[in-house]
Amino acid sequence: MAKFKSIETNDALDELFERSYDEPVIIFKHSNSCGISSHVMEMVDEVGNEINFVVVQDDRDISNSIADRTGHRHQSPQIFVIKNGKPVYHATHYGVDPEAIEEAINRDND
């Protein structure tokens, strides 16, 4: 099971991107008013890693910062695996695949 951790500040987001140079980081953009987003959150619970998430209705500025840093326009649900400050996996809605997330985490990306 995943360990979900809320991203509550832009400083915390900065720390995650910095940490991605040492280990893969998962970032999930979640909408608390969307049934698809809730279902996708249940699906990614299978990933045995920490999943850092932002609720887009509560923290629009953090959500926008994620879009700016990754180069992927905002969607929710939306998930990224970040390595070396860059997304190596990105998916939205029912394109999110827990197995592909784990593969991206374990794959060497230079």
Strand-helix topology:
Layout: E1 3-6, H1 10-19, E2 25-30, H2 35-44, E3 50-55, H3 60-70, E4 78-83, E5 86-92, H4 98-106
Parallel strand pairs: 1-3, 2-3
Antiparallel strand pairs: 2-4, 4-5
Quick summary of this structure?
The protein has helices at 10-19, 35-44, 60-70, 98-106; strands at residues 3-6, 25-30, 50-55, 78-83, 86-92. It is of the alpha/beta class. Strands 1-3-2-4-5 form a 5-stranded mixed sheet, with helices on both faces.
Outline the structure in words.
- It contains four helices and five strands; from the N terminus they run βαβαβαββα.
- The longest helix is centred in the middle third of the chain and has 11 residues, at 60-70.
- The protein has one domain (3-106): Glutaredoxin (3-Layer(aba) Sandwich).
- It has 110 residues and is α/β, with parallel strands linked by helices.
- The model has no long low-confidence stretch (mean pLDDT 95).
- It has helices at 10-19, 35-44, 60-70, 98-106; strands at 3-6, 25-30, 50-55, 78-83, 86-92.
- The protein starts with a strand and ends with a helix.
- It is 36% helix and 26% strand.
- A five-stranded mixed β-sheet has the order 1-3-2-4-5, sandwiched between helices.
- Strand 2, helix 2 and strand 3 form a beta-alpha-beta unit.
| CATH superfamily placement | Glutaredoxin
> Biggest sheet, in brief?
5 strands, mixed
Total E-strand runs: 5
Kindly provide the name of the CATH class: Alpha Beta
Classification by helices and strands:
alpha/beta
Percent helix range? 25-40%
Question: What is the averaged pLDDT score?
Answer: 95
Strand proportion, as a percent range, falls in: 25-35%
Helix segment tally: 4
> Order of strands across the biggest sheet?
1-3-2-4-5
Shape: globular
- In the CATH hierarchy, the architecture is 3-Layer(aba) Sandwich
Radius of gyration: 12 Å
Number of domains: 1
In whole angstroms, how far apart are the ends?
A: 28 Å
